[in-house]
Amino acid sequence: MVDLNKEKLVLDYPCTWMYTIVILETSNAKEIVKEVFGDRDHNVKASKVSKKGKFKSFSIDLIVHNDDDRKTLYELLGDHVHIKMVL
Known about the structure:
single chain, about 25% helix, 4 strands, alpha+beta, Alpha-Beta Plaits
């Protein structure tokens, strides 16, 4: 069995990367993503709704330029007050 904790992710940059965010049903995903990414090109698609309808998830596709860029965007999404989870 492969231990993924010992493996390092190797990517050829720039590349398309997808983040998934989970927000409250009452939040506006497009406004939240615009706050984080500004004018940077991205694509937001609705993904799933929780069983009780309290949460929604959205997929965000965009070009990342290097490892630091990818990790910084992840942190910015995670730090946003209306985002409950980033995958």
